[in-house]
Sequence to fold (809 residues):
Amino acid sequence: MNLIETEKKWQKKWEEEELYKFNKDNIDKKWYVLEMFSYPSAAKLHVGHWYNYGPSDSYARFKRMQGYEVFQPMGFDAFGLPAENYAIKTGVHPKDSTLQNISTMEETLREMGATFNWENEVITCNPDYYKWTQWIFLQLYKHGLAYRKEAPVNWCPSCNTVLANEQVVDGKCERCGTEVVRKNLTQWFFKITDYSEELLQGLDTLDWPKKTILMQKHWIGKSTGTEVTFTLTTGEKFNVFTTRVDTLNGVTYVVLAPENKLVDKITTPEHKQEVEEYKVNCSKINEIERLSTSREKTGVFTGAYAINPINGDKVPVLVADYVLASYGTGAVMGVAAHDDRDYIFAKKHDLPIVRVIKSENGNDELPYCEPGIVCNTPGFDGMTTEEAKEAITKKLEEDGNGKLVTNYRLRDWLVSRQRYWGCPIPVVYCDHCGIVPVPEEQLPVELPYNVEFKPDGKSPLAKCDEFVNTVCPICGRPARREVDTLDTFVCSSWYYLRYCDPHNDKEAFNRDIVNKMLPVDKYIGGAEHACMHLLYARFFTKALRDMGYLDFDEPFKSLVHQGTILGPDGNKMSKSKGNVVSPDKFVKMYGADVFRMYLMFGFSYVDGGPWNEDGIKAINKYLEKVERIVLASKDYKYNNNPLGKAEKELNFVRHNTIKSCIADMDTFSFNTAIAKIMELTNAISKYDNDVEDKNVVYQDTIKDLILLLAPITPHFAEELNDEMKFYNGSVFNQKYPEYNKNCLVLDEIELAVQINSKVKTKIVVSSSISREELEKVVLEDEKVQELIAGKTIKKIIAIPKRLINIVIA
Fold:
């Protein structure tokens, strides 16, 4: 079979017949399979694209054959840094290069032979999509979930843009590796923190990888503790959040973030210069580095003192880089005796260390950071940690100096970007009316084409007068458009909704349609999106639900992360290492089906692994073997006699394979499913060689083999069926094979016979044989008698259906 030509033939036929078009009349049987759409930042599909889309398409085909109405749309996440950087590198306008790349990627994805519903395609950089991204922004603004404020941000000097905390890795930009710096800018934020608790609780309802759930729980970071109010000797007050209020009597200093506005007010003249210099130095260090546990903690004294509310003691107020204004209250209390960081800091700055917790097992070494028994705290001595937390909080509440609160690590989502290639923010600024949302009937606010998009630290749109200068929608006076664009994650936080209703020009999506189509039944994509895209999409879903636009709580019911295909040397693929594998080369040589099957068989889908060219050659040989076996059976005549031993053994392997494949395909264990199909192929080959007068069960097994292979090698299976004329029309209109549990039990089984725990021979016995009968049959076997002749039998271990072991002296 010429697989290359075969694939072209069937792709043309599928398209002409609209075989995979979603039938809305069967929406009650829908199965929404969604792969995370790709960034068209390069002109060719790489192995990672193939590994995401190929095997997951096989899963979609499998579900179709199980009777589901599969919806598997495809589109492109076309805005953002990847596409813009590619355009900057090539000198071609981002719009032109992006649309050209999309065209190339569409063609390559079609050659894959996937069942994508292209009629539902969305492209986020097209106005008919980002009009509705802007509309969602306006709804969030209308409901108090979008706001603007000045805040310290992560700034990448190379990309010349703001980065979310999630996009900073080890103090560097995740995109280009440049060291990130801090600067203050007025930015737009989404109030994701309003949904902290629901985002946390909802995780327990999802069929997601445990690691991803734990990552989101950690990122949301719920903690319950006490908010303690300290009063400065000058009268100002500030709050500190602590989960260890039982140690409050051990506070010997407090620390403010350098950015805390209180610092300028309280710093005394003699310490002013030192504090100002320290603040400048801290601004050069990004948040990630400041929070690093391995970094030395620094700080300076402000000259101010605060009163400890539990004992009235006066404690010094310092400024230190390990406290962030953007996290918690921007102030922490220092309990050197019971916190590792505080202990080191106190030692360095010669601050007092006061024990207020004793170990129950007599461990008096400091710092002691575990729960224990309270000491040196009048009125609370002898209490356990938990008892003291409750009692001290109650005391603080009575005195008006504290309360029980719940804190979250999650920060509001910073969505402003100082880039060109993004969705314009639909806001204008008027000197008379202030911040004015663009009226919905004026959407979309289109991204202008003639803009200098190369980064220079200034928003590219700010340099485009025809875009910036507009009129106020309220008063009609001159106004200025917002010149920042939206974070690309905003575009990808709702695309799964638009897929269901992509041509609707009256609304972002029809409520009735999305309520029937969502949530997504199986979502497939990289684990690197655990704390960004996956969290943001959940926030959007919940916010839109509360606004009345949809009726479900979660966007993605079940989630699978694909692993990473490494280079042949076991390292991550990169051009610099010369270990990049091009899918094009192998697809042109062997065809898309062989390439897809290798990806599914050669790796555990969730783990990935190193590329091995010999593996793809082996897959090609295997399919050639299947073709020979199937086509050879075309001229056979079959009997309908009762099944003999050979037929029962073949039927057993057949139904056992079907059972295994159903379970394995459903859980993305493709490699083990294919291994079972290969075992079935061997069993078919054995029967073919051993039995001349073939039973019809042989033909039925070959039919099932084709159906089992169909989701994995779709073109190959279609061609074999067309040649054999087993089924009218496409194999994908056939039902996936089902197993008969009665065929999973053999009348006779083969057992290994061990002599002193070493296998010496095998015997065939009834599958229902008792232990006593098994011992008798074994001892009467001629071969066994030869093996034990002249020996003394000390013991016989007989376990029906498993083993027989004769212990001799």
